[in-house]
UniProtKB/TrEMBL annotation:
Organism taxonomic ancestry: Bacteria, Bacillati, Bacillota, Clostridia, Eubacteriales
Annotated GO MF terms: 4 iron, 4 sulfur cluster binding; metal ion binding
Domain 4Fe-4S ferredoxin-type residues, every copy: 67-91, 92-121
Keywords: 4Fe-4S, Iron, Iron-sulfur, Metal-binding
Name of this chain's protein: Ferredoxin
């Protein structure tokens, strides 16, 4: 899937690659749906232990990195960031982030005025070029 986390040294996924990734994801979803509806099992190829280890490392990193998000003075007080935060990590009235961030960057990409910064820098918001409709 396209990279939604392109702060610091990471770059956004180019539009052409995004389109290819969406098309591939749509194919994988259709195959998976067909297997599920046919009572076939879906076998994960990745090691569950490795996935769990990486998830734990990411959780620790996210708490630390999430402290670098701030709401700047362009905030219009709509509260969209607070309502959409999966972890209730944002208090837009106090312009503060707590330590529960999971780095989904939903706050950045959904802010109507792009008022959320990372380390004091504005991040270009992700714009969907194609949507998967099932």
């Amino acid at each position: 899937m396209p990279r939604n986390f392109y702060i610091d040294k990471y770059e956004p996924t180019p539009d052409l690659i995004q389109k290819q990734q969406f098309e591939k994801a749509a194919q994988i979803i259709l195959v998976s749906v067909n297997k599920i509806t046919s009572n076939e099992s879906l076998i994960l190829k990745d090691s569950v232990l490795m996935i769990d280890l990486l998830a734990d490392i990411f959780r620790i990193m996210a708490k630390s990195m999430g402290k670098n998000f701030k709401i700047d003075d362009t905030c219009i007080g709509c509260g969209k960031c607070e309502r959409n935060c999966l972890k209730q990590n944002i208090n837009y009235k106090d312009k503060k982030f707590s330590d529960k961030c999971i780095l989904c960057t939903r706050c950045i990409h959904n802010c109507p005025v792009n008022a959320i910064t990372y380390k004091g820098k504005k991040i270009n918001q992700y714009k969907v070029i194609n949507q998967i409709v099932l």
